[in-house]
Amino acid sequence: MLAGLVLLSFAAPLGTKAQQADTVRATSGTTTNSYQRENIYRLGKGVYTDTLRRDDFKAQASDVAELDDCDTTFQTFILVRRLSPWRIGLFAGPNFAYCGTWENTFGPTKRDNTLYNGAGFNITGTVQYFFTPATRRLRFAVGSAFGYQNYITRGIYKDYLYGLAAAQGVNRDQVTIRQRASEDMFLTVGPALTFTIARSRKNPDATTFIEAGAYGGLFRTEAATISAFIPSQGNIIPSGPLVEGGRLIRTVNPSSNLYHLGAIGNLAIFFPIGRNNWNIGIQGQGFITKLNYLIVNGQQDVLYEFKRTHGGFSAGLAVRKGFVQKKLIPKTPTVCPTCDSIPELRVQFNGNTLKGVSLAYVDSTNAQQQPPVNTSAAAPVISWRSTTPNPRNETFTARLYYRPDSVTTSAADQVIAQLENTTDTTLTFPTGYFANGQMNPGFYYVTVHNRQTAKCGSCMSEVATTSFSVIRPRKEVVECEYRHRLERLEVYYRTPYTREVANVCYCNGTITSVGDTVTRLRYRGLNRRLASNAIEFDTNTVILNLRDIPGDLAQQLQAEKAKIESGNAIRFKGRRVRPQVQYFKAVFTVTKLPCNGQPEQPVGSFNTTISDNSYSITDLKPLTDDQKAKLLAPPAPAKKKATRRRAGNSGRRSDVMFGVE
Predict the structure, then answer these.
(1) What are the residues facing 212 on neighbouring strands?
(2) Which of 274, 284, 506, 576 has the highest CB neighbour number within 10 Å of its CB?
(3) Cβ proximity of 481 and 595 under 8 Å
(4) Considering the entire predicted model, what is its pTM?
(5) Which DSSP state fits 137?
(6) Bridge partners for 442 per DSSP
(7) Secondary structure element (H or E) that encloses residue 382, with its range
(8) Largest Cα–Cα distance of the chain, in whole Å?
C-alpha cells in the first residue's frame, strides 16, 4: 500500500524546466518542510517491508553514499512523500429518535408510538479509500461507517405505566419500574464525496473541505426493555427478565429478530489542525432501519409482536486523519530533445534552384527588352525536410519576406507568407506576388527553423535561410549636383587667464581683499567670423569636410589658426601656455540643383562642428529657420561698463561680487 520503486536517469541537468519536471515532489502537492528527512534504507523496515531494502538499494546504487533525501535529478532513486488514499475518522454526539412525524419528535407530546424513545448518544467510526488524487478539489471515495448508538426511554412512558396501575386501583408507590435503553450497532459501506474549499499555501495537505457520505449495511437493533410490576402482590408468578417478583403490569422486550438492513447518511465540514493531516469539524448524521420487539400485557396475559421503522439523527464533533505515503515510485528516464540539426531548405522555380539567384524582370511595356518569358510557369516552390535524428514532437516555422525595389514604398521587410509551429514541409508562394510567369520585382528571403517539445522543456534550432531577387533593368541616371552656401565660419580656442583680486570696503573703515591670483583656463568663442560674406560652390556630395572646400578658404583657416596660437604665453602651473585652437563651427545651406527632370529642391541647413587636426566633421545638426536666423544674427552691441559709486553711507561698493569669476 505504501511502496514502489523508481529508476531515474543519470543524465546531466537540462535547465530549470527539466529539473522541475523530474522532481516528483514538486507535482505531488506536498511541501518539503512538512516532513522530517529520513534515510531511504529505513523503508525496508516495519510497514515498508515490501519496498527496497538497504542492501538491495546499495547493490543498485553503490556510488551513492548514505542518502538522507533522494529528491533530485542527479540521484538514482527519489523518495516521494504524498497523501495516502486512506483516511480514517471518528464522530460522536447526542442522538435523537425520529418519532414518525416532526410533531411527535419535537412537539409538546413527544412519543414514539409504543417505545417512547428519547435522547441518547452516537459514536461512529469511518474508513475511506479515495480513488481521486489529493490535488483535485472534488474527490470520490468508497468507505465504511460502523459504530454504536442508544436511546433512553422518555420519562413520559413511566406516567403511562403508572396510569395503567392506577386503573387497577394500585398506588404508584407500590409500582416498581425497571428499564434498559434501546441499542444499535451497525456496519455499513458506501460512497463518499469531499470538496476542497481552501488549501494552505505552506502545507498543501492542510485543507478545509466538505464531506458527504451515504452508506448501507447491517444493523443489530435491540429495543428498549421496560418492565412495570407490583412486588407486594407476590402470589403472582414473576414474568420477564426485569421482574424481580410480584404481579406484572406491562413489559416491553426485544424480539429474537435483531438484524435488519439499514442506511446512514452524513454531511460535515472540516478544518485543518496542526501539520499532521488532522482535521476537526461539525457533522450531522441520520439513519433508518427496522425494529422488532415484544409487548406483554400483564393484565390479560397477552403477548404482542411488533415490527416498525426505526430512525433518528445526531449532530456533534468529528475528526479526520489522513496519512502520508512514503515510497519509491517508478519513473522512466527523461530525455530532453536537442535541436542541433538545421532543416534542409529548398526553393525551386522552373526546375532550377533559386538559392542566391537574381532574375531579370521583363517589362512588357519596353519594346527593346524582349527576353523569352514562360508565362505558363508555376510559382516557386518553397520546401524543407527535417535532418533531426529521432525527433520528438517536431514542428516547423517558416516565413517568406519581401522588400520591394521601389523607393516610394516603405523600406521595411514584409512577411508575405508564413507557417508557425506546423508539421507541414511546404510554404505556398502568395499569388499576389506572382503573375504571367514572373515574380514581382524586389528582394525575397526565406527563413525556416524547427522546434521540439518534451516534458522537460523545449528547444529551437538555428535558422536556415536563403534569398533570391527579381531586378528591373536600370535606366541611366544623371548624377545630380548640390549647391553649398557657407554662411558662417567660426573658430573656438582655449586661452589661459588670471583671476583678479577685489578689494572690499567695510563700514568700520577696514579694507579686505577677496579672491586669488590663480591662473585658469577658459574657452573663448566667436573669436573670428571668418565667413563675413556667403560663399557658394557646387559639388556632387551633400556635405563636405573643410579640407575639400574649393578655393583658398582652407589656407585662410590655417592662417587664422596660426595667428591665434602665436599670442602671448602665460605661465600656468609652472609652465608657459599659449592660446590653442580647439575646433571650428560652420553653417551650411544645401540645395539640390535641377536634375533628371526634377526641379530645384532645398535639402536644408546644418550646424557643423569640424575638428582642428583633420578638418573632418565631428557633429552635424539640422537647423530650423528660427535656429538659423539666431545663429546668423549680428552680435549685440557691447554694453557700456558701469562706473563705480558709493552705495549710501554704508561705505560698501555696489559693483563687487564675491566668489564669482
Answers:
(1) 193, 267
(2) 284
(3) yes
(4) 0.43
(5) S
(6) 404, 470
(7) strand 381-385
(8) 162
Residue carrying C-alpha cell 452524513: 266
Burial class (CB in 10 A: 0-12, 13-18, 19+), 388: middle
What would the pLDDT profile of 185-244 be if each residue is shown by its tens digit? 999 999 999 999 998 887 778 899 999 999 999 999 998 888 888 887 765 555 445 456
Q: Tell me which DSSP letter residue 389 carries.
A: S
Cβ contacts of 433 within 8 Å, gap of 6 or more: 402, 416, 439, 440
% helix / strand / coil in the chain, to the nearest 5? Answer: 10, 45, 40
CA atoms in the 13 A half-sphere facing the CB of 357: 14
The C-alpha cell that represents 246 in the structure block: 410480584
* Half-sphere exposure for 346 (CA within 13 Å, toward CB): 12
Q: Are strands 225-230 and 247-254 parallel, antiparallel or unpaired?
A: antiparallel
Q: DSSP string covering 595-630, please?
A: BTTB--EEEEEEEEEEETTT--EEEEEEE-HHHHHH
| Number of alpha carbons in the 13 Å side-chain half-sphere of residue 93 | 19
Considering only CA atoms, which of 23, 322, 31 is closest in space to residue 200? 31
Confidence (pLDDT) at 401: 94
Distance between CA atoms of 639 and 277, rounded to whole angstroms? 92
Asked if residues 479 and 431 have their Cβ atoms less than 8 Å apart, the reply is: no
| Cell 552680435, residue located | 635
CB 197 within 8 A of CB 208: yes
Question: Which residues, 6+ apart, have CB-to-CB distance to 465 below 8 Å?
Answer: 345, 445, 446, 447, 448
Q: Using the predicted structure, report yes or no on whether residue 3 has a pLDDT greater than 50.
A: no
The C-alpha angle 465, 471, 473, rounded to 5 degrees, equals 165
Rounded to 5 degrees, φ, ψ at 105 are -85, -45
pLDDT at 506: 58
Among 97-106, 362-371, 458-467, the minimum mean pLDDT is found in 362-371
Q: How far apart are the C-alpha atoms of 410 and 629, rounded to whole Å?
A: 34
Grid coordinates of 554: 582652407
Alpha helices in 9-145 (DSSP H): 16-22, 24-28, 54-60, 102-106
Contacts of 547 (CB under 8 A, 6+ apart): 554, 614, 615, 616
Q: Report d(CA 643, CA 604) in Å as an integer.
A: 47
Q: What is residue 55's three-state secondary structure?
A: helix
CB 229 within 8 A of CB 176: yes
Nine-digit cell string for 386: 527535417
CA–CA gap between residue 363 and residue 470 (Å, rounded): 12
Q: Domains in the chain, ordered, with CATH?
A: 86-320 (2.40.160), 344-365+377-471 (2.60.40), 482-632 (no CATH)
Residue reference for cell 518534451:
454
Name residue, grid cell 510559382. Answer: 379
**If residue 557 lies in a helix (H) or strand (E), which one and from where to where?**
helix 553-565
Which residues in 6-26 are b (16+ Cβ under 10 Å) and which e?
A: bebbeeeebeeebbebbebbe
